[in-house]
UniProtKB/TrEMBL annotation:
<dbReference type="GO" id="GO:0043169">
    <property type="term" value="F:cation binding"/>
</dbReference>
<protein>
    <recommendedName>
        <fullName>1,4-alpha-glucan branching enzyme</fullName>
        <ecNumber>2.4.1.18</ecNumber>
    </recommendedName>
</protein>
<feature type="active site" description="Nucleophile">
    <location>
        <position position="428"/>
    </location>
</feature>
<dbReference type="InterPro" id="IPR044143">
    <property type="entry name" value="GlgB_N_E_set_prok"/>
</dbReference>
<comment type="similarity">
    <text>Belongs to the glycosyl hydrolase 13 family. GlgB subfamily.</text>
</comment>
<dbReference type="Pfam" id="PF22019">
    <property type="entry name" value="GlgB_N"/>
</dbReference>
<dbReference type="GO" id="GO:0005829">
    <property type="term" value="C:cytosol"/>
</dbReference>
<dbReference type="GO" id="GO:0005978">
    <property type="term" value="P:glycogen biosynthetic process"/>
</dbReference>
<dbReference type="InterPro" id="IPR054169">
    <property type="entry name" value="GlgB_N"/>
</dbReference>
<dbReference type="InterPro" id="IPR006407">
    <property type="entry name" value="GlgB"/>
</dbReference>
<feature type="domain" description="Glycosyl hydrolase family 13 catalytic">
    <location>
        <begin position="286"/>
        <end position="630"/>
    </location>
</feature>
<dbReference type="InterPro" id="IPR013783">
    <property type="entry name" value="Ig-like_fold"/>
</dbReference>
<keyword id="KW-0808">Transferase</keyword>
<keyword id="KW-0321">Glycogen metabolism</keyword>
<comment type="pathway">
    <text>Glycan biosynthesis; glycogen biosynthesis.</text>
</comment>
<dbReference type="Pfam" id="PF02922">
    <property type="entry name" value="CBM_48"/>
</dbReference>
<dbReference type="Pfam" id="PF00128">
    <property type="entry name" value="Alpha-amylase"/>
</dbReference>
């Protein structure tokens, strides 16, 4: 308790929102001469009574009009209430300052300070709890540079004078407010040492208002999961030895609903719809429940193993595609509530589909309610703009040298896997984190302590991230979008390579650019650039690669996949089929962006729907049929995935036939002794009597042909398969005489017994 002479100063600090220790003044306190006094801070209250043990005791404003006091004989603890009159309205409440239980314990603070509190979300944020049998919300925030922090919300008129929080060791601020419940809106009013107030959303908030509103919302996890078998199987196997075909999508532009269509919650209640955007008037966003009803059957029918969601972490601006995050612990409220997103993931799992979250730890926006200048100082970001800002993106860079900042991010990734059962993360823009000179002119970046361009602190963060994730969840995916030659992206750090990052997959950006460059050429020129389709195998085993044709390749006037291809419509579709089927037979896991599965013609537009109307035309239907079939074949043929990252899994037969634009290779699975022959013709003319060597004599059944009529092709092929001839070729004693359709990929499976 403050001494009498310090009470005036404490009251002045409370009145001016400069108090960091309200517990020293407010609540019950022992008096020096015996007895206790209860003090309540209630700005603008006209009358306050103390309700104690069935008695009503008037409280007086002795030292300040907002500070009400009453002496009592014994310590009342938390067993009293305050009855107050304000603006002619009477109300009764528990006194927040009578609940003083420390929320963040010594061990919690220690682990957080060293960056190793892996489940920090169980402490930070707003939590529905009980203290002394009274329910309410426990608030906890890290803001070490703040002079004072108040919890504000509709419950106190957004008035920062009402509920000042208590500062604890390590810059932690705590306050339990009794009587608050789920759905309560709140922010933190932070007063800086410079005298400025900031209203901030909760960095650890589990739910936030629908944009453009920015308050956090108290939320509880009430969801009952039904995916125990899925999780058990996932964490009991090596994902690199499984088929992985990923459907990347953006929830807000996959499909919209008519604004007049009712927006029904899972419990049957109708809620206000969320308008899509100003660019698509008369429409609304689908809810998580509606998306589950529509997306999951589509993805399941196509045979994809996973959905990758472009960021669904809360973000204020659609035009950022979700990559400028303000809520690292909350699914965006555009589509519904957190438990509704849990239900989306649960339904994916129960339909055999994994969920990958696009996660953004590289930068954050400058929105005033977010992390920027959070406590009136540079907290989450660097003070020096040469290492603290992406000027081209207009965003700020996390300060990875701060333990608490790394803890915030590592715990966020773990949170999504723990609380939402996400099956993996795709980490955005890893190269921007690794290099201090990324998109920076000479003289506008700072070297590391060794004089180099590597961001050593970011390297340590990524290593910590992956080590932590795989410690808890060995079966998940951690995928790096990394576009440089950084060594060991998918290897754990070791004495041999201290800079290895520990992901288990990396997007193969080189393969993607080579393929798109090659297929964009007029076929006559392809004979001079055969290396573009074969070069990937020169470096392939340096990392665990995922082949990706992502959203970045169908925006900013790059054209969608179909219209990158040269020629008339027939050739565009044939080239698209040839590329996608080559992708599915090339070593590595697979990712394509929504719309590619049926040949969307226009570029992706975040404000609009996919071009679902194109599916009324046969050529689009047939392309989608090919995706269905190649995915089914991919999942059934272990030779196409089990040994993706083992040199036993792939072998060229012939890759130097530049003039004809043909490559041939084998895919093998040593465990099952299964293997396939793949032959690709990337020229628009067929090759009849084309011979390749094969390792065994017998029958080679044609099990897939991208030129089949059912896929929109010319229907050339090999009449179900071919027997070998005893003619040596390509270092083998036997060979096949094949018909290679134009712009095609054909797959053969060996059998000693002839056709089925």
């Amino acid at each position: 308790m403050v001494e009498h002479q310090g009470l005036a100063q404490a009251v002045e600090q409370l009145a001016n929102c400069r108090q960091h220790d309200p517990y020293a003044t407010l609540g019950p306190h022992a008096l020096p001469g015996g007895g206790h006094v209860v003090r309540a801070w209630l700005p603008d209250a006209e009358r306050v009574d103390l309700m104690l043990q069935g008695r009503t005791l008037a409280m007086e404003a002795v030292h300040h009009p907002w500070l009400f006091e009453r002496e009592v004989a014994t310590d009342p603890g938390s067993a009293y209430q305050l009855q107050l009159q304000r603006g002619g309205i009477h109300s009764r409440q528990h006194d927040p300052y009578s609940f003083r239980q420390e929320w963040m314990g010594e061990l919690d603070r220690h682990l957080f300070a060293e960056g190793n509190h892996h489940h920090i979300w169980t402490r930070m944020g707003g939590h529905r709890v009980e203290q002394a049998g009274v329910s309410g919300v426990q608030f906890c925030l890290w803001a070490p540079n703040a002079v004072s922090v108040s919890v504000i919300g509709a419950f106190n008129g957004w008035d920062g004078r009402m509920h000042p929080a208590q500062k604890r060791i390590g810059g932690i601020w705590e306050l339990f407010i009794p009587g608050l419940g789920e759905g309560e809106l709140y922010k933190y009013e932070i007063h800086s040492r410079h005298g400025h107030p900031y209203a901030k959303a909760d960095p650890y908030g589990f739910h936030h208002e629908v944009r453009p509103a920015t308050a956090s919302v108290v939320a509880e996890n009430r969801f009952a999961w039904g995916d125990e078998a899925w999780i058990r199987q996932r964490d009991g196997q090596n994902p690199l030895e499984q088929p992985i075909a990923v459907y990347e999508m953006h929830l807000g532009s996959w499909l919209h609903a008519d604004a007049a269509q009712p927006c029904v919650e899972p419990d049957g209640t109708v809620r206000a719809p969320v308008p899509a955007n100003d660019m698509k008037p008369g429409t609304r966003l689908l809810t998580y429940t509606e998306l589950a009803d529509k997306v999951i059957p589509h993805v399941k029918a196509r045979g994809f193993t996973h959905i990758e969601l472009m960021p669904v972490t809360e973000h204020p601006f659609e035009g950022s595609w979700g990559y400028q995050v303000t809520g690292w612990y909350a699914p965006t409220s555009r589509y519904g509530k957190p438990d509704e997103f849990r239900a989306f993931v649960d339904r994916c799992h129960q339909n055999g589909i994994g969920v990958i979250l696009d996660w953004v730890p590289g930068h954050f926006p400058k929105d005033s309610h977010g992390l920027a200048y959070f406590d009136g100082d540079f907290l989450y970001e660097h003070a020096d703009q040469r290492i603290g800002e992406h000027k081209e993106w207009g965003t700020l860079i996390f300060n990875y040298s701060r333990n608490e900042v790394r803890n915030f991010l590592v715990s966020s990734a773990l949170f999504w896997i723990s609380e939402f059962h996400i099956d993996g993360i795709r980490v955005d823009a890893v190269a921007s984190m690794l290099y201090l000179d990324y998109l920076r002119p000479e003289g506008e970046w700072l070297p590391n302590k060794h004089g180099g361009r590597e961001n050593l602190e970011a390297v340590n963060f990524l290593q910590q991230l992956n080590e932590t994730l795989f410690h808890y969840f060995p079966g998940i995916l951690s995928i790096a979008e990394e576009s440089t030659e950084w060594p060991g992206v998918t290897q754990p750090a070791s004495d041999h390579n201290r800079d290895a990052l520990g992901f288990n997959l990396k997007w193969n950006m080189g393969w993607m650019h080579d393929m798109l460059d090659y297929f964009a050429m007029d076929p006559w020129f392809r004979q001079f650039h055969q290396n573009l389709i074969t070069f990937s195998m020169m470096y392939y085993y340096s990392e665990n690669f995922m082949l990706a044709l992502s959203h970045d390749e169908v925006v900013h006037e790059k054209s969608n996949l179909l219209h990158k291809m040269p020629g008339d419509d027939w050739r565009k579709f044939a080239n698209t089929r040839a590329l996608l089927s080559y992708m599915w037979t090339h070593p590595g896991k697979k990712t394509i962006f929504m719309g590619m599965e049926f040949g969307q013609r226009g570029e992706w537009n975040v404000w609009d729907d996919l071009e679902w109307d194109k599916l009324q035309y046969p050529e689009h239907q047939k392309l989608m049929k090919m995706i269905d079939d190649i995915n089914a074949l991919y999942r059934s043929e272990s030779a196409l995935w089990r040994e993706d990252f083992n040199t036993n899994g792939f072998q060229w037969i012939h890759c130097d036939d530049n003039r004809n634009g043909v490559i041939s290779f084998m895919r093998r699975d040593e465990k099952s002794r299964r293997w396939l022959i793949v032959v690709c013709n990337f020229m628009p003319n067929p090759h009849k009597n084309y011979r390749i060597g094969v390792p065994l004599e017998g029958w080679y059944g044609e099990i897939f042909n991208s030129d089949a009529e059912i896929y929109g092709g010319s229907n050339l092929g090999n009449l179900g398969g071919r027997f070998t001839d005893p003619w040596p070729m390509h270092s083998y004693a036997h060979s096949l005489d094949l018909c290679l359709p134009p712009l095609s990929t054909v797959i053969f499976r060996h059998s000693h017994h002839g056709p089925d």
